[in-house]
Specification:
alpha/beta, Nucleotidyltransferase, domain 5, 5-stranded mixed beta sheet, 11 helices, 10 strands, globular, binds 5'-O-[(R)-(carboxyoxy)(hydroxy)phosphoryl]adenosine, binds zinc ion
Length: 342
């Protein structure tokens, strides 16, 4: 299916992009002006999954279908603009839960068709990279980016906007997934990353959990051994203080991440590092990264927590850049559960 919408150019005088994100359990919409000016950023987190200890795909899709219209209307209202002022629509098309993607993506295509404006499909991971640009509009490649989310852990070089070279990724669990699984072991709700961080603040990080792949020299990540070490520790020490376990796990997980980042700075010679994705909202990680940035002389960029976790402003920002570089996406662009960057 092709349309005049897909072929039409962006009107230069009104660069308002509507971003739509529905790849997992956040229904999000945002209006971004001129690449980086966020006029609205509405995120509706689906609380229903907490009782199941993880995202239930069918429930996520149904919740997106219910929420997508009110969330988009709220984004327009909060931005103070109407439908006729929107010049393009960007939506996540990969990677993610298929049923979830298949709510926001067709919705975005239908809007683009009916409003006769361009549609752009965005890779969710690329969105996380563009979250860095929202607060640093003058950021320019090349730079290093670490994406630490619930589904992905990637270290890459942004060689050019929309052009990436992968340096490493997780061999098993994603970093946020490890936080969530350990939070579950500690009886915290889902998603558990932020609760684990709160608990860890009250504990002492004295338990020597392993730092995965510490001496391997590789730029890949691994978190499942660390998670299993916490499981065995809890089985062997039923009276362990949960706050100490949380603090100790957190230190090891953060060391695993910061090791790779410092190694990547040294091997690439790049001295600008962006750290993004849900786990980048972690204060302890941010503090430790700041110290390392001073010690190893790199410029550290971490988005505000609101832009670290899933949102649609980052999707709109990526979509505008994609539109300028490559033009609109075809309206038959498929939703993909898995997709690499590039
Ligand atoms: O980027 P994101 O919102 O969604 C995905 O693309 O996956 O990341 C969500 C992940 C979850 O695993 C969540 O537990 C984790 O980020 N997270 C945190 C914190 N806030 C969110 N992990 C550690 N500390 C936090 N403060
Ligand atoms: Zn994400």
């Amino acid at each position: 299916m092709n349309s005049s919408a897909a072929d039409s150019a962006v009107r230069p005088h009104d660069r308002f992009c509507l971003g739509i994100e529905t790849s997992c359990d956040e229904t999000a919409a945002s209006v971004v002006k001129d690449r980086t000016i966020v006029l609205s950023n509405i995120v509706s987190s689906q609380l229903i999954h907490s009782q199941y200890g993880g995202v239930v795909p069918e429930l996520a899709a149904r919740a997106h279908a219910r929420l997508i219209v009110p969330v988009i209307l709220a984004a327009l209202e909060s931005a103070g603009i109407n439908w006729s002022q929107i010049s393009c629509i960007a939506a996540t098309h990969s990677p993610g839960l298929l049923g979830a993607l298949l709510t926001g993506l067709p919705f975005a295509k239908a809007l683009s068709y009916s409003l006769d404006i361009p549609f752009v499909g965005v890779n969710h991971l690329e969105g996380h990279i563009f979250a860095l640009r929202l607060e640093h509009p003058n950021l320019s490649p090349p730079f290093l980016a670490a994406i630490l989310s619930g589904g992905h852990t990637e270290l890459l070089v942004v060689e050019e906007w929309c052009s990436y070279r992968e340096l490493g990724s997780t061999l098993d669990d994603a970093c946020g997934e490890a936080f969530d699984k350990v939070a579950k072991l500690l009886g915290l709700g889902y998603p558990g990353g932020a609760s684990l961080e709160n608990l860890a603040r009250k504990g002492k990080p004295g338990i020597p959990f392993p730092v995965p792949l510490q001496d391997s020299g590789s730029l890949d990540f691994s978190f499942s051994g660390l998670k299993t070490a916490v499981l065995y520790y809890l089985q062997d020490h039923p009276k362990a203080r949960p706050e100490d376990v949380a603090a100790s796990f957190q230190e090891s997980a953060i060391t695993a991440v910061t090791n790779r980042i410092v190694r990547a700075v040294k091997t690439t010679g790049l001295h600008t590092v962006g750290v993004t994705g849900g786990v980048a909202a972690n204060r302890r990680l941010r503090d430790r990264l700041k110290l390392l940035a001073e010690k190893h002389d790199f410029r550290l960029l971490v988005p505000c927590p609101e832009y670290c976790t899933d949102n649609a402003a980052m999707i709109a920002a990526a979509g505008i850049e994609r539109l300028d570089r490559f033009g609109p996406s075809p309206l038959n662009l498929p939703a993909l559960a898995r997709a690499r960057l590039g």
